[in-house]
Amino acid sequence: TIPGYCAAWVSMSLRDAGKVAATTRDILLHLENENYIRMATNSLLSLKVVGGGEIVYRPSTPDSLRGLTLDCLIQDEQAFCKNAREIYSAASPALSTTRVKLIDISTPNSQVDTFYEFLKKSSPEEPQIIAQKIMNKELEPYQVYVDDNTKWCSVYLSWMANPNCVQINEDNEEGFVGYMQRVLGLDSDTASREFNLSFDNSADTFFTVDQINRLTSTKTTSINPESLQFFGLDCSAHKGGDYTVMMAVSQEYNPETNENIFIIHDCYRSNSGTIENAIYDINQKIEEYGDSAFSLTIETNSMGIAFHEELQRISNCSMIEG
User: What pairs with residue 261 in β-bridges?
Assistant: First the structure.
């Protein structure tokens, strides 16, 4: 009801934003019927009150807020928005004023996205550690942290703060998370993110936990010479929580399940020391496998190019793919 006030709700898609707009519109139309307000617009793109403010609903595209002067920006499921950084940058001139509010709402995703970065601004320790303490009942299920200097605020909310969810947990042998996973048909990764405050270690998860558990065998040093053998290398600059990881894997056919299985033989993981040391360690690990028919596949990013060129020069690996 504040004249000239403008808030923007940004969702992953216009359809998602429209669902929120429809719910908000129902509430405002009820208030209009009770003669509390009078609507000037009631479309799913803009809800405006006569003599008051406006809420606009937009998809998460970089230019979605162009031309708007905002008093409040709300980003829904921000951790899954690939344009979150661009949207924040576009709104930054307005957000630099003390009267403008930024509200990010999301289930957890990764430890390297913008949402995690914003959580860290006011959290006393790594958000993933706080989340683990909440789920281990070392902290209360509802936590609020405020940085008095920057005015950033972070809120952590677990299902354990909801009495109805606690009751479901007590009534079902599989627990609340297992119950929701079954009812909603979710895989383990999604259920963990949605209900267990779980942040993935990397920005992208290409295989779910269920897929990996089904298709991988336990770690073993025995190698079938007829199997497909390869090293998978994920490179990093050894900054922050990002790791360089290399796994030795072989692929074999399992006649019992009529599927290919992947057997993990070894894993190198490090984010300490220099990149040169990491390349040296990786080459040493490759040489341990001697004449085995392992090929090396490297993630194709800027760091991967550096690792690729150096390993191609010093390694005896049969084939290196960039």
Answer: 252
